[in-house]
Design brief:
The structure is a single chain. 23% of the residues lie in helices and 33% in strands. With 791 residues, it is of the alpha+beta class. It folds into 5 domains: 73 residues, no CATH class; 239 residues, Immunoglobulin-like, CATH 2.60.40; 130 residues, no CATH class; 173 residues, von Willebrand factor, type A domain (Rossmann fold, 3-Layer(aba) Sandwich); 107 residues, Fusion Protein Consisting Of Minor Coat Protein, Glycine Rich Linker, Tola, And A His Tag, Chain: A, Domain 2 (2-Layer Sandwich). The strands form 8 sheets. An 8-stranded mixed beta sheet has the order 6-5-10-3-2-13-16-15. The chain starts with 5 loop residues before the first helix and ends with a strand.
């Protein structure tokens, strides 16, 4: 990074401090900054408690394969002004949140489920009336937001939420994960134009290495149903007590005072490597639910493995700086170094931009493997996280005929394009299986698991360096030969409906085949599973008459509904289908579930704040263990550390934000590929000008997706500015988009720019772009102008 003069820094800081309004946790809305997290800066105002969350704990009860979890958050106002506290926190991607209550002193208020907008409106009205209230919203399937309004000085408010989830073993090992902190999300979306549902991204974070400002605790009671062979916790120090051969209790060790900065990961294995399988039945007043779990056969040895092609997609952005990127390097060296000579492979690196090792996959020769490893070793980590353009480019790479392709992506998943990536994967299901490797201690599991699920692959998470070899070896064994193919299930006389999934893909891992659904009448008959293991037919049968409905299986209604919601949400992507929105909303209201369109709200009847508004405070989050300050932004480091102690403290916790963003134009740059140097200073910007295309819907979608890919053109422009600092103007292009949304042809029809290599670079980058397929399923011609402006 080029040095920044202290005078410039002080000037920016002074300007920001003088212009910052005295509102806590409220961010500036100007047209020049994007959604982004920022570093927490404590003010000197003693009347405001900026850290209202005092503790969070989880009480986990596992019975068989079902975990029931109660999360308790305690808020206390130790200041002198009424507060509204906002807290962003994660949950399991499989969590079905079915209840919430709020306790104020002796009063306990049970929350009700409402449509999202109605719940928010009810909460805001109660807040304005001076009533204490709490609101739980889902921002992502694994990211929740808690608002607690009108916490009076001295108040202690306790909020409890309950969720349930399934624990599915892989290769005989069960795993319960309790996420503790949401990692900072990179976003290039304009803050001024962002909808309210995206505002959570602008959240304060503590500096790297700083412990959470609130206490964290967790305890588990495990009733496995079968004798337990082994239990381990790789993330935290715990104390385990056996209460019998199949029962145990787990408590967090008292030394874990700062354990809330990484996922709690607990694994256990049943005696003999057995896994729970069979049929669970639940009989409610109106509906009856079932859960079928069938253990697949053991893995077979395949004598002749057909050739395969692997595309390794590696995140080298700022959030991967340091520990996560070093783990990625170790993983990729292991995976690439063990390819067979008959395999082909390629490497795609991405941050703000992206680059490939080769325009087509290369044979896994020792020379090519060494070249790939050298390329990966040179990466340092920096810039944004433009995953979507990278995925589009990877899928557009030419593929070898007759060879099965798998894509392996290594990332922490700190991006805001989950829906767009899912949509892209769904459109290309026939092109490749997707295997994701989450790198870090608190990865974005929603994105990683969703990509693997949509891509018919498997997700892996590596939170420690010593896990790298184990997970890489597990991946290799998995893909060499599926456990079961051509899977079919026959329910016979068992009258079932609303069954998910409708069909079962090839089974890669030794874990239960899972089927949800509802049933009518009486449980009778047999269920038969058929498939092929290796070259041998496989059959397994369950006698339904041996199974009885049980009240202990009442969670099946929530689990079925959550599974259905997840399926609908995965498909309800860029184009929100009103019918799917209605169905998800109906499921949430009917089954009392938190969803993207339903929220929990609890309102006190007392008016507790009179004659003044509460101060809004965003609870700062710790950076996940091992994640550096670069995840929030390297550009802010120089600025914040440059502020001399003689300057007055900011007027609000995030007043430093404006200065951070003032420097954003100069230092927030995508990484270059291995052939050129990295840009350290932003000298110009690229914008979309006019667009001419047939169909307003296609035009709007095209414009949105083009803006998301402008970093690729910015790369060309920044390079040209190195030799012509005053270069600016616009170009006009004519593009032909094929029926699949890929760029078939692009021509430069006019230009006001004149710089060596700029035009070819623009055309090359435009050819790699992909867009949503036209609804007409016909080729579309687009004429557009791109503006290149110096800063």
């Amino acid at each position: 990074m080029k040095p920044i003069r202290n005078g410039v820094v002080l000037f920016i800081l002074a300007a920001v401090m003088l212009s910052a309004p005295a509102v806590y946790g409220q961010q500036r809305e100007d047209a020049n900054h994007t959604l982004s997290p920022y570093f927490f800066v404590k003010t000197d105002d003693p009347t405001v408690d900026q850290l209202p969350l005092k503790s969070t704990k989880a009480d986990v009860r596992v019975a068989g394969v079902i975990a029931d979890v109660m999360v308790t958050q305690v808020y206390k106002n130790e200041g002198k002004k009424p507060l509204e506290a906002i807290y962003i926190f994660p949950a399991s991607t499989r969590a079905a949140v079915y209840g919430m209550k709020m306790t104020i002193g002796e009063r306990t208020l049970v929350a009700t489920i409402k449509e999202r907008e109605e719940a928010r409106r009810t909460y805001e009205e109660a807040k304005q009336q001076g009533k204490s209230a709490s609101l739980l919203e889902q921002q992502r399937p694994n990211v929740f937001q808690m608002n607690v309004a009108n916490i009076l000085p001295g108040d202690v408010i306790q909020v409890e939420l309950k969720y349930t989830e399934l624990l599915l073993p892989t290769d005989g090992i069960y795993e319960f994960i309790y996420p503790t902190v949401v990692g900072p999300r990179y976003s290039n979306q304009s803050a001024s134009g962002a909808p309210p549902s995206e505002k959570w991204v602008e959240n304060p974070y503590l500096r790297q290495g700083k412990p959470p400002t609130y206490s964290f605790d967790i305890k588990m009671n495990l009733m496995a149903g079968l004798p337990i062979q082994e239990m381990t916790c790789s993330s935290h120090k715990v104390n385990i007590h056996y209460d019998g051969p199949s029962r145990a209790s787990v408590h967090l060790d008292p030394s874990e005072t700062a354990g809330g900065n990484r996922d709690f990961i607990f694994k256990y294995q049943l005696a003999g490597g057995k896994i729970e399988s069979g049929l669970l039945l639940s009989e409610g007043e109106k509906e009856k639910f079932f859960l079928l779990m069938l253990q697949p056969p053991k893995r077979v040895t395949t004598h002749q493995i057909p050739p395969r092609e692997y595309i390794f997609i590696v995140d080298v952005s700022g959030s991967m700086y340091g520990f996560p990127l070093e783990m990625s390097k170790k993983l990729l060296k292991d995976l690439i170094g063990n390819l067979r000579p008959t395999d082909k492979f390629n490497v795609l690196l991405f941050s703000g931009g992206n680059s490939v090792m080769s325009e087509q996959s290369l044979p896994a020769t020792s020379e090519n493997i060494r070249r790939a490893i050298d390329l990966i070793e040179r990466q340092k980590g920096g810039g944004g996280t433009e995953l979507l353009p990278a995925m589009k480019r990877a899928l557009s790479l030419p593929r070898s005929e007759g060879i099965s392709r798998s894509m392996v992506i290594a990332t922490d998943g700190y991006v805001m394009v989950e829906e767009e990536v899912f949509d892209l994967m769904r459109k290309n299901l026939g092109d490749a299986n997707m295997f994701t490797f989450g790198i870090g201690t608190s990865v974005n599991r929603h994105l990683l698991e969703g990509m693997a699920r949509v891509g018919m692959g498997e997700p892996f998470v590596i939170s420690k360096p010593e896990e790298t070899e184990e997970k890489a070896d597990k991946f290799r064994k998995m893909i060499e030969s599926p456990v079961l193919t051509r899977v079919k299930i026959d329910f016979g006389k068992f009258d079932v409906y609303d069954v998910e999934p409708l069909s079962i893909p090839d089974v890669f891992a030794e874990r239960p085949i899972l089927v949800f659904g509802k049933w009518r009448g009486k449980p009778a008959g047999e269920i038969t599973l058929r498939g092929v293991t290796g070259t041998t037919p496989y059959t397994k049968t369950i006698d339904i008459r041996k199974e009885k409905p049980s009240e202990s299986n009442s969670a099946l209604r929530y689990l079925w509904a959550r599974h259905r919601v997840s399926l609908l949400s995965d498909y309800n992507v860029i184009r929100n289908d009103p019918d799917r929105v209605k169905e998800v909303t109906h499921l949430g209201l009917t089954y009392n579930l938190l969803t993207a369109y339903t929220s929990f709200v609890a309102i006190d009847t007392e008016i507790r704040v009179k004659g003044g508004e509460a101060v809004t405070v965003k609870q700062p989050l710790p950076l996940p263990q091992g994640v550096s300050d670069f995840a929030v932004g390297g550009k802010s480091l120089a600025l914040q550390e440059a502020r001399p102690s003689s300057l007055p403290s900011p007027a609000r916790p995030d007043s430093i934000l404006g200065a951070n963003r003032a420097l954003k134009k100069e230092v927030d740059q995508p990484r270059e590929d291995e052939k050129t140097s990295t840009f350290h200073q932003r000298k110009g910007r690229v914008e979309v000008g006019s667009i001419s295309a047939t169909g307003e819907r296609f035009k709007a979608t095209f414009e949105k997706e083009l803006k998301q890919q402008l970093r690729a053109l910015e790369f060309c422009y920044q390079k040209a500015l190195e030799t012509q600092p005053d270069l600016k103007g616009d170009v006009t292009l004519k593009m032909i988009i094929d029926a699949n949304g890929k760029v078939k042809k692009v021509n430069l029809t006019s230009t006001q720019l004149s710089a060596k290599g700029l035009d070819p670079c623009i055309l090359e980058k435009m050819k790699t772009m992909t867009f949503t397929a036209p609804e007409s399923k016909k080729e579309m011609t687009v004429t557009l102008s791109i503006l290149f402006k110096s800063v």
